[in-house]
Amino acid sequence: MARDVLENKEKHPMEHPQVVVIGGSSGIGLGIAGRLLADGANVTIAARSADRLAAAERELGAGERLRTIVTDVSQEGQVERLFASTGPVDHIVCTAVDAVGAYQPIRRLDLTSIQKLVNAKLYGALLIAKHGTARGSITYTSGIAAYRPAAGGSVVAAVNGALGSLAAALAIELAPVRVNAISPGWVDTPVWDAIAGDAKAERLAAMAARLPAGRIGSPADIAEAVLALVHNGFITGTVLHVDGGHRLV
Ligand SMILES: NC(=O)c1ccc[n+]([C@@H]2O[C@H](COP(=O)([O-])OP(=O)(O)OC[C@H]3O[C@@H](n4cnc5c(N)ncnc54)[C@H](OP(=O)(O)O)[C@@H]3O)[C@@H](O)[C@H]2O)c1
């Protein structure tokens, strides 16, 4: 039994696996970076703002096992430069999102403001697969908006759904590299400041009361599940839902 458990765990070529977390300066990505560091990984976090990366570096306090690289994942040249700098790594995780202006009624769709979301989440995901070399796994971030849609969330639903399909397609094309998507439910992160503004606390509390789990998620909840996707060598082409039962209510 113990042997089965050992064999099912990804065999890392190095003592400290190398992991790139794009979007790792905030929210869920920051939680994932912290959890990976605690697990012994060497972590590179990438995002657009050098200030937020520096703040994350101070918060994580991991010394030489943590690097930061300013990268806009929607810009091909920057993604190419990121992976030229890291070289081949063991795992890539992407949580990048720019959700400002992403939620709009379909009749008032403003293409310019939704392009930031599509560029960061979907084109970014494609560019990561094009330019990044992962020996073990790639994990994208989908989200509950695709599986329990709400009015005004059509663009986010479409992009999140596309990430599940992309993970499945790449799991075939890039095999034996494993490619999955994690799908968080509502998680208390700074993204809610952009989505709900002053109504953030009220909206999160109302959702917590509806969920079977009885609470909103934390970045640590999602990070723990991402760790399973990173380590379990038999999970590929999957969307892992970590949503407190949100799809059921
Ligand atoms: N929080 C939730 O309730 C929830 C629910 C379902 C799904 N999700 C998904 O979970 C993921 C993480 O969300 P979060 O709540 O942790 O968001 P967050 O706190 O706003 O963090 C987003 C991160 O992405 C980075 N980023 C944004 N645009 C980027 C770009 N073009 N290139 C590189 N980095 C970029 C941000 O840094 P810079 O701005 O400095 O670039 C930041 O580090 C997203 O995919 C989101 O859609 C979240």
Automatic annotation (TrEMBL):
Gene3D superfamilies xrefs: NAD(P)-binding Rossmann-like Domain (3.40.50.720)
Alphabetized UniProt keyword annotations: Oxidoreductase
Keyword Nucleotide-binding in record: no
Alphabetical list of Pfam families matching this protein: adh_short_C2 (PF13561)
Domain of life: Bacteria
Ligase among keywords: no
Family statement: Belongs to the short-chain dehydrogenases/reductases (SDR) family.
Protein name as annotated: SDR family oxidoreductase
Species, as recorded: Fodinicola feengrottensis
